[in-house]
Design a protein that fits this description.
By secondary structure, the protein is mainly alpha-helical. 64% of the residues lie in helices and 0% in strands. The protein starts with 19 loop residues before the first helix and ends in a 10-residue tail after the last helix.
Length: 663
């Protein structure tokens, strides 16, 4: 069994070219998966197929291709796909499917349609908001009646013409936004993967099961089979119970009332704990097993650290009735988390200072630049650095073009990419199964820091138009891009060809997302009872937030800024202690996540995964750890395959089935 997560991966001596057939298969799969994701999440109400760090739909597609490949191995082995080809197909899905998910295209399309549809005589959006939006950002209002009512088709010339301009504009914006992430991934890859030896836990499963096209040592292992069967039974019983309530099942999701412990903490100050729920997600337990122990320990420890901060402030009377906002919002957990996110990004970029300085000098003195340093990277470091700067400038110019003063998009995208870099670092180091950004997002942070006086009517509306991009970071694409590079390196794919494949996947993913979303909404109706109202109502929430900001002036919230500063300082403290004491158990990543609601749903499963690994390594050492790897791969894969099959079953019959994840 490979112990690749414990060793640095060095560039193989012989890298394999990306094959045309693997690119073709990957390209053909992208629109199929995008439509499956949209139909399942929006219409069928099934499992979230694109929101997980280890993307469920991509893993299921990989498994199906591998099963077919297994047949080919037996009957015509010379035509079988290699691991490099399988991983090319896989990374094309991971770098594209998320574009159509929560926090990306699903939120964008709701934002640019709801502003006109939900305008009433009471909210006056048609006069207070729409005139401040550039017409080329929005679809033609004439094609929106069918979009909201359904029983129509997007695929007619009138509807396509009504949408073509915003499709091209926003696709260009998304491609530039993801291009900057790709360039950043190239710049950080060597530092994080080769020098710091981060474990990249999310890459463990696809790499292990795809060895030699079909990992015999994994799939023939009794440990794998046991691990696989457990979620199959648990998820199938829960799914059958949804259809036939008389069938008993064991609850594993926090939405089940039997796992809700909140009622145990109703008296002050313990009611400051808020919601406390148990969960036993098999795939979370499986993924946590591959995390370093200090990281997995810190995840659940700092979750309760935040809870007890709330208990302390409740006991101190800060949350009493009538308390002023600056007092009642203490201990500012969301702001602490935002500060931690910013500081983690600063530390990450500080570690690249010499690296970036060399690339910067190489731009102006190319005859002195040593090209050997980046010959095995996805692109020349100088080109990547220019790509980051040029992309950032284009995004800033886009902000100016839609009505903001130049400083505003410049600050917004700087903070946005700080959050993105930290989120990527979390995935590389902590492999979080399901993650969010801090509860205080970039928009809230800017408004708290500058106050409403810094925003006029036009800039408030324009800035809020980008709220879809940072209000939910679970499908942020930079982690997928960096993990794709890690996978490519481990499976001996030429890195520069892989970067081109990722770019191709991004372009196909953008247009496939538009096609899948608009097809679903024109057929079923975005305002009908046939679709998921939470997703279609995000735009209404965005513009309600805008009118609230317009109607309520606010001075800079210094209490919130103090929370941000406290988060930054405590993160510095944690980093300094880690650098001075080898056995220091508290990881800054866990603290940064304490101010998100990620851990509300998975803290218990995280605790179980940490406990099991701690016991195995404590009493059996690394040999026992490697021995049980197939079991935990089985937990993840069994959960994913079962959830995917039930999602397909529900979608094919037009019925609502059990959602294996999230709740």
């Amino acid at each position: 069994m490979s112990d690749s997560q414990n060793k640095p991966i060095t560039a193989p001596k012989r890298m394999m070219s990306v094959t045309p057939r693997s690119v073709l298969i990957g390209a053909l799969l992208i629109p199929v998966l995008c439509y499956w994701v949209e139909y399942d999440e929006i219409v069928a109400g099934g499992t979230d197929l694109a929101a997980m760090s280890l993307i469920i739909s991509a893993v299921f597609a990989l498994f199906v291709v591998m099963v077919l490949n297994r047949v080919i191995i037996r009957i015509a082995p010379k035509f079988a796909l290699s691991q490099g080809e399988l991983m090319t197909i896989y990374v094309m899905q991971t770098c594209s499917v998320g574009i159509c998910g929560i926090g990306m295209m699903q939120f964008l399309i709701s934002t640019i349609t709801d502003v006109t549809h939900y305008s009433t005589t009471e909210n006056l959006w048609s006069t207070r908001l729409v005139p401040y939006l550039k017409p080329w950002l929005l679809p033609n209002p004439a094609v929106l009646h069918a979009y909201f009512s359904g029983s129509s088709s997007f695929w007619n010339i009138t509807n396509i013409e009504g949408w073509i301009t915003p499709i091209l504009v926003w696709t260009g914006f998304i491609i530039v936004m993801l291009w900057v992430m790709l360039c950043l991934s190239v710049l950080v890859r060597r530092r994080w993967a080769d020098e710091e030896r981060l474990s990249f836990p999310i890459t463990m499963l696809p790499l292990e099961i795809s060895k030699e096209g079909w990992a015999e040592d994994i799939f023939n292992s009794s440990m794998f089979k046991i691990g696989f069967v457990i979620p199959v039974i648990l998820e199938s019983l829960a799914s059958l119970n949804t259809l036939y309530p008389n069938i008993p099942f064991l609850p594993i999701k926090p939405s089940d009332p039997r796992l809700d412990l909140t009622g145990l903490f109703t008296n002050p100050p313990w009611n400051g704990m808020g919601t406390i729920q148990l969960s036993f997600y098999p795939m979370v337990i499986g993924l946590i097993y591959f995390l370093p122990l200090d990281v997995s320990f810190s995840l659940w420890f700092f979750y309760f650290f935040g809870k007890f901060q709330n208990v302390f402030t409740t006991a101190a009377g800060f949350h009493a009735a009538g308390a002023p906002p600056a007092q009642s919002e203490m201990p500012y957990l969301g702001e602490q988390s935002a500060g931690a996110f910013i500081m983690v990004a600063i530390y990450a970029m500080y570690g690249l200072r010499k690296h970036i300085a060399t690339a910067f000098k190489g731009i102006f003195t190319p005859w002195k630049y040593n090209k050997e340093k980046d010959k095995n990277e996805g692109m020349d470091y100088r080109f990547a650095l220019v790509g980051v700067v040029a992309g950032y400038c284009l995004l800033t110019a886009f902000g100016v073009a839609i009505g903001m003063p130049v400083w505003m998009p410049a600050v917004y995208f700087f903070l946005f990419y700080c959050f993105v870099v930290t989120f990527t670092r979390m995935r590389a180091e902590a492999g979080l199964p399901w993650g969010f950004g801090p509860n205080t997002n970039v928009h809230t942070l800017m408004r708290s820091g500058f106050g409403s006086a810094a925003f006029n009517h036009q800039s408030t509306v324009s800035l809020t138009l980008l709220l879809w991009s940072d209000m939910d970071m679970r499908t942020t694409q930079m982690p997928n891009q960096l993990e794709a590079m890690r996978i490519g390196e481990a499976s001996s794919i030429k890195p520069r060809q892989l970067v081109l494949v990722i770019l191709l996947a991004i372009v196909i993913g953008c247009f496939s997302s538009w096609a899948a979303l608009l097809s679903c909404y024109y057929k079923y109706g975005a305002a009908s009872a046939k679709v998921n109202s939470w997703r279609t109502g995000i735009g209404e929430q965005v513009w309600s937030t805008t009118t609230h900001w317009l109607d309520n002036s606010m001075h800079p919230r210094y209490g919130r800024l103090e929370g941000v500063a406290a988060g930054m300082l405590f993160t510095i403290f944690l980093y300094q202690m880690r650098s001075r004491f080898i056995a220091w158990p508290f990881h800054p990543i866990g603290y940064a996540l304490s101010g998100t609601f990620t851990m509300d749903w998975i803290w218990c499963a995280t605790f179980i995964g940490w406990s099991v690994k701690a016991l195995i390594t404590r009493y059996g050492g690394m040999q026992s750890y490697r021995r049980y790897i197939p079991f935990f791969i089985g937990l993840i894969l069994g959960d994913y395959i079962t959830g995917s099959l039930w999602a397909i079953y529900g979608a094919s019959l037009g019925i609502t089935t059990y959602r294996c994840f999230p709740i």
